[in-house]
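Quick look at the format.
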Amino acid sequence: MIIVGVDEVGRGCLVGNVVAGAVILPDDFNLPELTDSKKLSEKKRDILYAQITQACQWAVGEASAAEIDEINILQATMLAMQRAVARLNVLYNRVLVDGNRCPKLAHCTAIIKGDLTEPVISAASIIAKVTRDRQMIELDAQFPQYGFAQHKGYGTKKHLQALAEFGIIHTQHRLSFAPVRRVQKNH
């Protein structure tokens, strides 16, 4: 039986893509430390990411800030999840998604806090989190004044102060999110 685990990262951020990971664990794959990516240190996530990407089938799907603004964050999250599963390019028996709703995928089950209880979802959570964090580090190299490497695009005090001082990055900030809209009106 082929089970795909799916999770996303970045729904609450003010900048960048929402990223979904999709993973299929081999039958002999056993990492007892798999859990929700947010409960792991960055170093531990990186180690697990390397192990997952070497031993498992995996894929990432994303929806851009422009897509988020166009269709809303919930629909963009569902789209990113669909893209991740489609990129696996396999016939599967079941999809397990962290959360309370499924994207339009056959044989899908949503599991609240599934990233804590289902190793296959935990693995997807790690793939998504490490991928998005690395994107934020790259964005930080382009725009160091915003502090993306530290806050990963969330609406922290430092991010909001940088928005007020430097304005928005039109290609990256989510213009439909209230804190970004407020800054846009004032600049």
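Next, a different chain entirely:
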Amino acid sequence: MAHTAYLGFGSNIGDRKRNILKAYERLSEKGLKIIEKSGFFKTAPYGYESQPEFLNSVALVEVEAGALRLLEIIKEVEKEIGRTETFRWGPRVIDIDILFFEDLVLKSEVLNIPHLDLHNRCFVLYPLAEIAPDFLHPVLKITVKELKKNCRGKVEKIEITPAPDLRF
């Protein structure tokens, strides 16, 4: 049975655009169907501010796997693209978060859905509102566009043309 999920992508090391596009490609190769993608947004770092700006995007995906298997796939892709563990909110080649998995509410030691801090993260809410403004947060019972109205952060949409050697 196919499920839908919203994934958040961020990168602030190396070729940020290429890192995110490569993540889309690798997830597709692992069986996820990318249904819709937001644009790209340049954003200030969150949590730890002494690092380069991030490039962020959000995608709606269809996946046959459940939420925990999706997390495993995401961790595989992050590692393949070059992510290494640093410190909380530190710089990263790629970061992929499960924002929503349908209307599932899950709290475990390895995964929380919806993403616990999503409602405070402008770098997620701006691209998410672009493709899912009316999606209802299953815990807060507020739409994404309403959550975005409360955002206070530096977010700038930028135009990026896809790299010719990638499918996206």
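The radius of gyration is 15 Å.

See the schema section for token definitions.
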